[in-house]
Every structure is written in C-alpha cells, then in structure tokens.
C-alpha cells in the first residue's frame, strides 16, 4: 500500500478523535471510526469512490503510527478493517442486532478458520499490567482531589438529569460558583477553591448574565476561578461530539491554564444528533475519557423525556458515569425552584461517606438556597446493657481519639470503644476474651439495627 497524506476533507475528523484516545485504545478507536465511514460510504454520503476513501483511510492510519507497531497485528487489522469497510456489494452484512450499527468490539473474520490469509494474528505480551493482589497493594495511586463533599472530584464523571424548568441550570451555577470560591454548598464541604468552567448551550446571554449576577450575590463574592461560556459568543459553535468542538474547548482549557471542573449545560444543546441513538454519545466518549485523564471533573446536565423518572435517550450514557443524579419536583407555594436530589448511581459511596450521598430536598427561597436532609430514620429501642454500651461510645466520641468524617462527624475505632466498655464492666476482655467479643458484637449489631449508629470496618459513629 502506498503512503498517502491524511485527508483534509470529509475524513479529517478521524485524526483528532484518535489523538484523544488513550495510547492503548488508539487502534480500536480508529477501527470504530473506519466502520462508521463504511456505513456512510454504503449510504452514498461521500463523493469519493471506495478506492479513494480506502487510500485516505490508510494514510490516516500511517500518519497516526498505527501501522508502525512492533508486531504485525496492527497493520493486518487496519488493512482488514479498511478492506471490509470499503467493500461495496449487494450482499447482506452481519450486524449485532441493529442495522448499520458498527459492532462494539474488534471482530475476527468469520472465515478465519477456513482462509489462512484471514487467520487471527498472534499477539505477544511483553510486559504485564498490575494483576495480582500484591501488585494492587503495592501501587502508589494519587488520592482523590475532592471538590464538593465526597461525591465530586477532579476525575468524577457525573450525569445530572431533571425535567425542563426545574432548576438544573441554577443548581449547576450555584454549585460551580461555590466550588470556585472554596466555600461549602448545602451539606457538602468544599476542600479548596478550584477552577470551574460552566458551558451553556441553551440560555440567552442576557439570561445567563442575570443568573451569574444573582448567584454571585448569594455567594457574597465574585470568585475569579469561575468562568462561564455562552455558545452564543462563539461564531459557528461546533457540537461537542465533533472533533472541531472538542478541540476548541480543549484549547480554551489550555488558554485558561487548566480547569478542575466543567459543567456542561446541557447535552441536548451541546451535542448534535438524535439523543435516542448511541452514536452521538459514542462520538463524545473518547474526549470525555481524555478530560478525565487530564484530571478535569465533569458534570453533564441532561433533560428527561415523557418519563420524568430517568434521563432522556439511550441508557448507555450512564455506563461510563461514576455518579448519576436525578432531580424530582417538590411542590412549594413560595418558590418555583424546589426539588429532591437523589443519587441513582454512586460508585464512590461507602458507609463512611454516605452522609454526602443521601437524598436531599433543595429549594431557592427568598434568594437563599435551603436544604433538608431526608435521612430521618427514627432511632429504635435497645436493651439496657446495649444502651450503656452506647453511652460508652459517646464518651469515646467526646474524647480526642476520634477520626473525623465528612460533615464534621466524629468516628471511634472499635478497640477504643471496646476498651471503654471493658472499663465500665460491660465486658471482660482480659479474663473472658471470647465472651467479651461476642457481647461486644451484639452491642454493635443491636445499635446498628436500631439506627443509633453506623459502622464501616473498625469505625462507628452516631446517627
């Protein structure tokens, strides 16, 4: 195959998409794009003939180093996929259940067993990634950089959905501005002031300006770390599922000296295509992952449809998200912005951090954000001896041997609690160790069941 420079025409979108892919995913990303080109070619979307498209695709593969791998697998796979995509015939093609939808994984030709020319090539792995338990224990991984409570970090990918007019944009601006100012919002503690970019694709500039002014008044300051972009201010603003749109926002991030969090408002207005289809989000996903690798947290605001209990369109959009938040309307006579925020999906939630992930009723009343936590379980009754064990725990929590949890909650280690129970004669650790362990575990169990305490490993705290 002769080397050809990559096209500057209708196939120019492929190289930027490959650039955003992780090093190990570049070949797969290219193959996915080739399959899309094959679909468009068969639909007559290109003026060029199949042979010219084939030559241009090969040039793109060469320009991106996909044929220069030390083994022959990459070159063979590239040539096979290009041949398959540019073969125009009248025979039906096998699909994965959807007409004209590219299969999600690299396929082995059906004829691999019969035709030696299409036999799957062998791959030799020269070095292994971390696999064993000891490998993972030995890894030195960076700690999360928290932006709001324990639910939002610089690597979080969050989907926030609600019906039209409920207050999604207001909430996004309020959250973003407080993160930029480094102040708490609702019951979520902010660790530091962070750089925030709010991208609006729907509101008029006049309305966005007014909402920024209003929220700055509520915060009581104008944080310099908060940046708001209106798509109206960018001539011929490109959708964020296109290479041009992704490259422009990436260039803006560099111009601002880096960003910790982007709030996208909203998917319907910033991404083109039919939201019921998977293709628009699949075109966006490599860039979403690239932002994560750059330690840029993301909140993608989205609408609901006729079913107001879930986000509109394909469910696969949630698969790559760490957190999925949904807002349900809560009717109040004194305000139009009132809803219950629920975490439908929360990968980072643990018993120690569930305080930050509980449902919360939020309303904007008299120009102030108000909230009410909905975890209002009533404590149950426990036996007298267990009540005394609770008193022992409270005494430990009042001392200086505590661990601080989110929301300024104090937790005690079970050893310190057990020692206090022993000092009060509730258990005898020295002479009756086995019996003491059994009784102590019963205290713990009964208090958890009665919603008096919560536990995570060796830590326990009051509810």
3D architecture notes:
This protein is an alpha/beta fold and 463 residues long. The chain has three domains: 14-118, no CATH class; 146-373, Rossmann fold; 384-462, Orthogonal Bundle (Arc Repressor Mutant, subunit A), CATH 1.10.10. It is built from 13 helices and 15 strands. It has helices at residues 14-20, 26-42, 50-63, 73-85, 133-138, 168-181, 205-219, 243-255, 267-270, 279-293, 384-397, 414-423, 433-449, and strands at residues 146-148, 152-153, 157-162, 196-200, 226-230, 261-265, 297-303, 323-329, 338-346, 360-365, 368-373, 403-405, 409-413, 453-456, 459-462. The strands form three sheets. It has a nine-stranded mixed β-sheet with strand order 5-4-6-7-3-8-9-10-11, sandwiched between helices. A four-stranded antiparallel β-sheet has the order 12-13-15-14. β1 (146-148) and β2 (152-153) form a beta hairpin. The chain starts with 13 loop residues before the first helix and ends with a strand. Residues 1-7, 69-73 and 89-114 have low confidence and may be disordered.
What's the structural blueprint in terms of helices and strands?
Elements: H1 14-20, H2 26-42, H3 50-63, H4 73-85, H5 133-138, E1 146-148, E2 152-153, E3 157-162, H6 168-181, E4 196-200, H7 205-219, E5 226-230, H8 243-255, E6 261-265, H9 267-270, H10 279-293, E7 297-303, E8 323-329, E9 338-346, E10 360-365, E11 368-373, H11 384-397, E12 403-405, E13 409-413, H12 414-423, H13 433-449, E14 453-456, E15 459-462
Parallel strand pairs: 3-7, 3-8, 4-5, 4-6, 6-7
Antiparallel strand pairs: 1-2, 8-9, 9-10, 10-11, 12-13, 13-15, 14-15
